[in-house]
């Protein structure tokens, strides 16, 4: 059975560093590890990330949320679910708690809506 672990935190808080350190430790113990991140760790996700970060238009908060959720759906289908199915440990840099914080609180959509 696989295991899914995520690191959450603000920009520059060391999430990517912790993902890399944990992945290295687990690989050293002989585990298959998939280190991943969102948004953007699939081909579709990369295009979504580009739109989110560098799009010319200011996105409405709901549009931003829907893009994040589209990225997550693709990410789960292409990366997370297959790895867990193989029994791998998936170590992620961000997941749903970040969506709740950024789109729910920061974009004022509200946690219940997200």
Structure description:
There is one protein chain. By secondary structure, the chain is α/β, with parallel strands linked by helices. The protein contains four helices and three strands. It has helices at residues 15-28, 43-54, 61-85, 96-106, and strands at residues 3-7, 33-37, 89-93. A three-stranded parallel β-sheet has the order 1-3-2, with helices on both faces. Helix 2 runs antiparallel to helix 3 (61-85). The protein is elongated and about 45 Å long. The two termini are 29 Å apart.
List the helices and strands and how they pair.
Blueprint: E1 3-7, H1 15-28, E2 33-37, H2 43-54, H3 61-85, E3 89-93, H4 96-106
Parallel strand pairs: 1-3, 2-3
Helix pairs in contact: 2-3
Question: Radius of gyration in whole Å, from Cα?
Answer: 15 Å
The helix count comes to 4
What structural class do the secondary elements suggest? alpha/beta
Low-confidence stretches: none
Distance between the termini: 29 Å
Give the rounded overall mean pLDDT.
Answer: 94
**How helix-rich are the residues, as a percent range?**
40-55%
**How many β-strand stretches?**
3
Q: What is the strand content?
A: 5-15%
Topology pattern, helix = H, strand = E: EHEHHEH
Coarse shape: elongated
């Amino acid at each position: 059975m696989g295991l899914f672990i995520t690191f959450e935190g603000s920009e520059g808080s060391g999430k990517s560093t912790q993902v890399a350190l944990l992945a290295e430790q687990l690989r050293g113990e002989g585990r298959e590890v998939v280190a991943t991140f969102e948004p953007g760790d699939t081909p579709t996700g990369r295009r979504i990330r580009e739109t989110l970060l560098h799009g010319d238009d200011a996105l409405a908060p709901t549009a931003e949320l829907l893009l994040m959720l589209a990225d997550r759906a693709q990410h789960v289908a292409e990366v997370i679910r297959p790895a867990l199915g193989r029994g791998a440990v998936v170590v992620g840099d961000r997941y749903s708690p970040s969506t709740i914080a950024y789109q729910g609180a920061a974009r004022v959509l509200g946690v219940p809506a997200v």
